[in-house]
Amino acid sequence: MTKPSRTPFHQNKNTSHASSAFTLVELLGVITIIGILAGLTLGGAGAIRRHAATSQAKSEIAALQAACDRYYAENNAYPSNTAVDPSSNFSPTNPVPSQTLFTNLIGSSTLSGASPKRYFEPKPAMVYTNGSPNYFMDPWAYPYGYNSDGTNAPLIWSTAGQTTAAGTNKWITSWPKL
After folding, report:
1. What is the H or E stretch that residue 157 is in?
2. 149 Cβ contact list (under 8 Å, min separation 6)
3. Omega before 124 within 30 of 0, i.e. cis
C-alpha cells in the first residue's frame, strides 16, 4: 500500500495558478494611482473650461463691438444708454445696459421680434429670453456690461463670473488693458 500524501487536498502540485491572484496591497496601490490620475485630469478639465469660457467671451465682445461699428456706420451714432444711471452699469447682475444694446442691435426688445434690420445675429445661448426685454449674456450667465454716450466708441465688458468689484482685473473688456 502506498502512503498518503501529506499535502492538503486543496493544494495543487501545479503552482502556476497560485501566482495569478492580486494581493490587497497591489489592488490598493493601483486604485491610489488611478485616483491621483483622475484628480489631475479633472483639475485640468476645469482649467480648460474656464479658458474656453474666457475665449468665448472675448470673441462675443469683439462681435458686439463690430456690430456697434456697423450700427454707427448707418446711424452716425452708437447705441446710447445715457438714460441709465452710469453707476449701476458696473453691477454684474444689472441687465439694463445689455438690454439697451440688445434692443438697438436686434431692432426689437425680444429675439423673436420682427425687425427689418439687425446688426447682430447672436447664438441662442447668448441671449436671455426668460423676460422682456431680452439681453445678451456672457458664458457665465451674467449680462454683458455696456456704456456709451452715443458719440464715443462703446465700452463692452464681461465680469468673467465675478460678482464683486474686487475681481475687476479679471473682467474681459473691449478696451485695452492699461
Report:
1. strand 155-158
2. 80, 82
3. no
Calpha distance 22→27 (Å, rounded): 7
Q: Which grid coordinates are listed for 86?
A: 452710469
Strand partners, 173: 157
Nearest-CA neighbor of 135 among 161, 160, 101? 101
Q: Could you tell me the pTM of the whole model? A: 0.72
Q: Can the peptide bond before residue 176 be classed as cis, meaning omega within 30 degrees of 0?
A: no
Q: What string of pLDDT tens digits covers the 178 residues of the chain?
A: 566 556 555 555 555 555 678 899 999 999 999 999 998 888 888 888 999 999 999 999 999 999 999 999 999 999 987 654 444 545 677 788 888 899 999 988 888 876 778 899 999 899 998 887 899 999 999 999 888 888 988 889 888 888 776 666 788 888 876 5
Q: What separation in angstroms does the CA of 119 have from each of 48, 103, 131?
A: 32, 10, 21
